[in-house]
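Chain A, query sequence.
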Amino acid sequence: MSVVIVGGNDCMIRQYKEICKTYRCRAKVFTQMKDGLKGKIGSPDLLVLFTGTASHKMIKLALNSANQKTVIVRSHTSSASALKNILHQQTGI
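Chain A, predicted structure.
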């Protein structure tokens, strides 16, 4: 399963990726708005939006680039336990 995380904290990028790896997911993490972000998101199976730490522009861009099959989950908190709960619900592991 491919996961794209939009938002979160810069210091947590490595931890987000490790958590995804334990749930057998490949992860891309975007904590800040950068050029070409729309093309880098691609078409993931799961799009996690940490709305508390992402800008409105970044959230809107991520939502516009997601396809019909992408499952979108929003979370106000960007903690490791919030990501674990989301992945547990989506993967069943």
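Residues 2-91 form a domain with the Rossmann fold fold (CATH 3.40.50). The two ends are 12 Å apart (CA to CA).
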